[in-house]
Specification:
Shape: globular
Distance between the termini: 26 Å
Radius of gyration: 17 Å
Strand content: 25-35%
Number of helices: 7
Oligomer: single chain
Structural class: alpha+beta
Number of strands: 11
Helix content: 25-40%
């Protein structure tokens, strides 16, 4: 694990480093410039608020290939019946704030600090981060946000105030963004595995990502 210099935007090459749990670096900052560089290299920040910033590149990597998306009969019915209305990039900061406030089983807190929100909002203003909003009766009931590197979307977090809201938003995003080649889900979850997400070797993920930045 490498200790980062807060005055220099640099990271170890994840292709050259092996880590049992995927933790490659510690420290640095959450400046928009460093965040964008991290995603371009295949790293992402994940840590508890008040602790040192931790930078990860898991091996294997949990991803979803759009062509392999699985939509259950019940979800197809929800989408066909227009149970929800969807928008994109209409209230990014509100979505990330709701993700911060969302209750997560088996987690004591959240890594989404106010500084974190500010930095990702700047990435959004520059077109690198985007949000999907899920509405019901004009109320924001779900959503997700992430960082897009070329045709790779790095999903960061999602929230749902009513059943199936975040899942519907995720499916809507994939079906309506045909240019997306890969969804980086980062950390395994049964929720996303049910939609078709799977593990691929880190080497394969980095190869796909490199095509987006070369």
């Amino acid at each position: 694990m490498v200790l980062l210099d807060p005055n220099e935007i640099s990271f170890p090459d994840p292709a050259l480093m092996d880590s049992k749990d995927g933790l490659l670096a510690i420290g640095g900052d959450l400046s928009p410039e460093r965040l964008l560089f991290a995603y371009q290299l295949g790293l992402f920040p994940w840590f508890n608020e008040g602790e040192e910033i931790l930078w990860w590149c898991p091996d294997p990597r949990f991803v979803l290939i759009p062509e392999e998306l699985k939509i259950s009969k019940s979800m197809k019915k929800i989408l066909q019946n227009d149970v929800f209305r969807f928008t994109e990039n209409q209230c990014f900061k509100e979505v990330i704030q709701e993700c911060k406030n969302a209750y997560r089983k088996d987690q004591d807190g959240t890594w989404i600090s106010e500084h974190f929100i500010e930095s990702y909002t700047i990435l959004h203003q520059h077109g690198f981060a985007k949000s999907i909003e899920v509405w019901q009766n004009d109320e924001l009931v779900g959503g997700l946000y992430g960082v897009q590197i070329g045709n790779v979307f790095c999903g960061e977090s999602m929230f749902a105030k009513v059943s199936n809201a975040s899942k519907a938003g995720f499916i809507h995003f994939i079906l309506n963004n045909e240019n997306i080649e890969l969804i980086d889900c980062q950390i395994h979850s049964a929720h996303l595995e049910s939609l078709g997400a799977k593990m691929i070797p880190k080497k394969e993920y980095l190869k796909i990502l490199q095509k987006q930045t070369s």
